[in-house]
Structures are given as C-alpha cells and as structure tokens.
Amino acid sequence: MTMKRIITMLIHNRNVLVSSLMMLIVTGCEEFIRIDPPKTEITAETVFTSDAAAQSAIRGIYSLMMTNQSFTKGELERYTGLSSDELLVYSSNNEQQQFYFPSLLATNNILYSTFWSEAYKYILNANAMLEGLQRSFGLSPIMRQQLEGEAKFIRAFAHFYLANLFGDIPYVTTTDYRVNASASRLPLENVYEFIREDLKQAYELMVEDFSFSANERTQPNKWAAMALQSRVCLYTGDWEKAEQLTTQLIDNGSLFSLEDDLNKVFLKESKEAIWQLKPVVAGTNTFQGQLFILTTVPANSLGRVSLSPDVIGMFESDDERSDAWIGTFTNGSDNYYYAHKYKIDYSAVLTEYNTVLRLAEQYLIRAEARAHLNNMEGAKADINAIRSRAGLAGTDADDLTSLLTAIAHERQAEFFAEWGHRWLDLKRTNRVNEVLTLVKPDWQPTDVLYPIPQSERLVNPNLTQNEGY
Q1: Does the bond joining 453 to the residue before it have cis omega, within 30 degrees of 0?
Q2: Which of 244, 249, 369, 429 has the largest CB neighbor count within 10 A?
C-alpha cells in the first residue's frame, strides 16, 4: 500500500478514536509501521530492538507535530487568536471566520482536523509507545525510562490543550479501539488529575539534561514535565505547588535563563527555551513565521490575519517588546501589524525552532502564585524580572488586586500570539465575557468552549455536546 493511499484512508476516516488505531506509528521522519485493528501491536523487531530504533519512534511523534496541519504547528495561535482579541480575520473561508465572530458550528472541519484529530493522534501514538515498551526487551534501562517519560509527557500535553479548548473530554490511555470508541467525557477536574499523574511520572522517569536530543531542547526532559505541571497548578489554583515547581526551574541557572536580547528568545539555541519543536519540512523554519509575517496586505497573504488594535494598544510607550516582536507592513495608505517573534518565513537554514515552553512563563506563574500566597514582594520581583527585560520600570502594584492586574497585563504583552495563552488566560481568570463582549457583538458566554466535533458524536453516542451548540 502506498503512503499516499494510507494518508488518504486516514483523512477519510472521521472517527479518530477508532481510526487512529489504523494510523501510522512513527519510527522516523519517513519510516512508518501500520497498525491494523482490532489487534494493535507494535512489532518489537522493527521498533524496539535497539535504543536507536526506539529513539527514532518517539522523535517521529514530534515530527508529526511539525508536519501536519495541527494545533502544534501554529494553528493554535491562529485560531485562538481569532477567538480572543488578538487577531483580525481577512479570510473569506467561512470555517475560519467562525472562530472570529464567533459562530462556530460543530460541523466545522478545522475543529476536527486541526485540534481534536491531531491531539488524539499524538495521544494514541504515545499510548502505542508505552504498550510497545512493556513488550520490549531490547532497550537499555535509561532509554526505556526516558521514552516512557516522554510518552507520558506527550499524552499529558495533548490532553491539556484538548481540555482547555473543549472542556470535559475522554482521557485516553490505551490503543484498544473497543475502549476508545465508546469513551465518555470526564469532568475537567478528573482530566487534570490524570494530567498531573502523567507529568509526575514523566518527571520521575526522564533525565535532567538534553543528552537524548543531541543537546538541543527538542525532546522533553524533567524540566519540561515540571514546567507543564507548574502551569497545571496555575490553572487549578494549587499555589504552593506552583511556587515550588517554578522556583526549581528559575533557580536552575546552569540550563535556563532569560535572554537579555528579545530577538534571541525564539532562536533554536535560546537559553530561555525549556522545550522546542524542531521544523522538519524542507525549506522552512516555523509555521508561525510563515503564518504571521506580512509581505502583502493580509487579504492576499497565506494566513490572512493581522494583529488587532487591542494588541497594539496594550503596550506601554517604552516597552521594547513592541519594537522587537511586532512588525509592520505598509501598502502606502494603511498599516498592518503582525506578530514578529519569529523572524523567518521561508529559509533552508534552520535558525528558529517552535518554542513551546519557556522560562518567562515560569516567572509569571510564580508571580501569580506568590500573590495568592500573600508574598507581595516576591510577586513584584517576578513581574519586574519580565518588565526589566522589556526595558520597563518596576511595577507599583502592591496588593492582590493590583498585582493580578499587573500579571495579566504582562502575560498579555509577553505571550501574545503564542500557544493560545491569551485565550486560555481570559477563560481561566473568568474575564472572557467582560473582555470579549466589548469586541465581539455576537459573543455568548457559551462560546468559551469549542463544540465537540459532530463527526465524533455520530460514531460515539457517549460524547455529549457542550452547551450552546
């Protein structure tokens, strides 16, 4: 069977929790193993006979994240940016417009193909990896532990975004299609419990350095698990644990530090990076660069988006992030502003990697945790570490309310057009209705969650629908 035919089969099979059992388990950038239902077996002789082969398998999942049209390849920034107040839409594509106005339908194919399907594909690959590791006897103990940790990290990571986009979701821990095909949605608090347990185990299993990724930051290690777990603590209000985890990361100056030069933050060798995804498509760096950089008016561009006036207007006059991270395209009469964190749109020379987790987030997580723990001076110090890097004076906030406002502002300025932070922050802090009612006339409170794809509900009656759809 040709690769083209296999891919066509995957595209046409709409039930990801079933069809992903026939998907491709990645064993390298180009080599795949087909898994046929109902038996889901990874051939140990092909994948797990050596450390090198098993390492290739896990790397293949990261390659998938940077190959397909996926939320991990810039699409999260695009569509949550449209859903929030970050981006303006110019596309005539109705399904893209639905994210902006908002007028999402459960039949929107972007929801399925870019978010739901891709996330569960990575989850099922991770589960297949875990099951294969249990059957394998050809690996060194340290490789087995590292790969088990990475697989659990991937599973937690994908479920985190599914939960924050769709709310209650199935937490899938097997490749058994009979189980997955009828999986029910779990309450969000239970999903977070599973995520935290996966991240805890991932932390215990993985190494502390970047030796498994040739000293690049393209495979998660203990610190990546810790960084994502600190974010989960932020989202669930576990302030003491959040402060503990972020402090360990921030204090690890031998591996991580804030880049003094804002133009170096998203380079592949950035010391601020905790986990990055390496581009694998020839002739390209990151999709964020391709998507956001404007060389013509947005209506004629690939992404057909630009930064909204709300983003441009939020920056203080001397904030260096505005100059470093915002670009301008002028067509003679109008100015269009775009996210310019990534400077390369197309180039065969790799200089930028897709930065998923970085140290600046840990400072602002700790600031928020410290504010809630009544450590106002500590919270101010963390805010000011980010402000100082941006060329700004320290904050004058000194109580819980003003500090939380200051943190929200810094998060908006630091993480605009980056991994959906703005959309998720508005929701987790219960400000989404207040903010978006002012900029979206059709806004309804039920728009805070995306609808469960209708194609999934047709094949799995246990998947209920979110309110309002």
Answers
A1: no
A2: 369
CA 212/CA 442 separation, integer angstroms: 49
- Low-confidence stretches of the chain (pLDDT < 50) are 1-45
Concatenating the DSSP letter of every residue in 207-220 gives -SSSGGGTTSS-S-
Local structure of 323: helix, strand or coil:
helix
What pLDDT, on the 0 to 100 scale, is given for residue 189?
97
Task: Give the per-residue pLDDT at 21.
Answer: 38
Q: In the numeric block, which tokens belong to residue 12?
A: 């046409």
* Cα 267 to chain centroid, rounded: 18
In 3D space, the residue among 76, 99, 152, 68 whose CA is nearest the CA of residue 419 turns out to be 76
Contacts of 151 (CB under 8 A, 6+ apart): 58, 126, 127, 129, 130, 133
Q: Which pLDDT score, from 0 to 100, does residue 355 have?
A: 98
Q: Which two tokens stand for residue 442?
A: 């059709």
pLDDT digits (tens, 9 = 90+) for 27-54: 333 332 233 333 334 433 456 888 998 9
Measured in degrees and rounded to the nearest 5, phi and psi for residue 327 equal -105, 160
Q: What is the pLDDT of residue 47?
A: 64
pLDDT tens, 411-449? 999 999 999 999 999 999 999 999 999 999 899 999 999
Q: Which helix (H) or strand (E) holds 409?
A: helix 400-415
Q: What residues have CB less than 8 Å from 371, skipping those under 6 apart? A: 379, 400, 403, 404, 407
Asked if residue 38 has a cis previous peptide bond (ω within 30° of 0), the answer is yes
Residue for token digits 């601020």? 272
Instruction: Give Cβ neighbours of residue 278 (< 8 Å, ≥ 6 apart).
Output: 62, 66, 216, 218, 268, 350, 353, 354
- Give the bridge partners for 357, in sequence order: 275
Closest CA to 201 of 163, 236, 173, 166: 173
Instruction: Take residue 16 and report the two structure tokens written for it.
Output: 């990801």
Q: For the chain, what is the radius of gyration of the CA atoms?
A: 22
C-alpha 328/C-alpha 334 separation (Å) is 10
What pLDDT score was predicted for residue 354?
98
3-state secondary structure 129-184: HHHHHHHCCCCCHHHHHHHHHHHHHHHHHHHHHHHHHHCCECCCCCCCHHHHCCCC
Task: Tell me if residue 195 falls in helix, strand or coil.
Answer: helix
Beta strands in 234-372 (DSSP E): 273-277, 305-307, 326-330, 335-339, 354-358
Residue 136: per-residue pLDDT: 86
- Looking at residue 164, what is its pLDDT? 98
What's the DSSP call for residue 380? H
In this structure, what DSSP letter does residue 232 have?
A: H
Q: Which residue has the tokens 């079933």?
A: 18
